[in-house]
């Protein structure tokens, strides 16, 4: 009996010693993940980014195929924000890039597509950045994964969300004034990041970020989730001939067939072949200050601006039809923050971003599709509805 107990105790000690030898620290896991990623050839990524900026919601859903050596990417993305959604396709092979916006393929330089790096999370730059914060990660294990979790606050953590900022803001991030504000005045109030790393491949399988930020006293929040799949199973992306053959340059896209002109409303009505209504109820102090006609290859529209002062205005945009609007911009933006309402018997979508910014879309009885936007505390929800119901 004593011999059996001794053997059992020895076996338990050996088992504990073996388990202790296999235990890894968060730093060791990250180091191995970086090394494994150096050998990564390809993968697919499904990313969702929800951003709230000063009460305005923006969301991105993107599915990407990415290869390294050669560096190629194909991305199918949908972007939604107040008033519209936009579908975007991107092909990138080396420095050659093609982007499809508003139904038109545009030839670009890959470096000109701001925020593109944010959709390739498994690269050495991003992983080295994570490694710099390894002492802030806590690690657990579940279902064949190492789970690394970081929480923190303060300016030192801003570098961990830079790529998400650029991905969500796109070209805005290139504006010198905005960029200066972002990287100087941005405050990280709280940040939570979670990584799930496969124990066998040591490749990150899931990554999530939840950040509460502030900029110049205004709220700014980012929530992002990325799921990795098809590791080393994606073939290098090739740009289809039909994309190359039909693509235009950026300059020709901006210049081709575009008209923007301020004209009296009566002259605009003589130009277009659809009804252009106007506001018959205008709150005291407001007046029609400008009427403009816009046209390009994708859409035409009329914009009427009613101003009171620098802080209070409302604008009415008139499109030929809802079908024309959807073809150019995608489906009307709706989510949990919007509300379906009735305007003279027509169904509309209202979004109240805050007390001073309201956005309303609906189909007019004559077939035109209308957007009514107001900014300023002088126009309440009730006044906006009165303006909308008086448009004819």
TrEMBL record:
Residue ranges of every copy of the DUF4367 domain listed in the record: 277-391
Signal peptide: 1-23
One Pfam family named in its UniProt record: DUF4367
InterPro entries tied to this protein: DUF4367, DUF6612, LolA/LolB/LppX
SUPFAM superfamilies hit by this protein: Prokaryotic lipoproteins and lipoprotein localization factors
Keywords: Signal
Entry keyword Transcription regulation: no
Domain of life, source organism: Bacteria
Protein name as annotated: DUF6612 family protein
Organism of provenance: Oceanobacillus luteolus
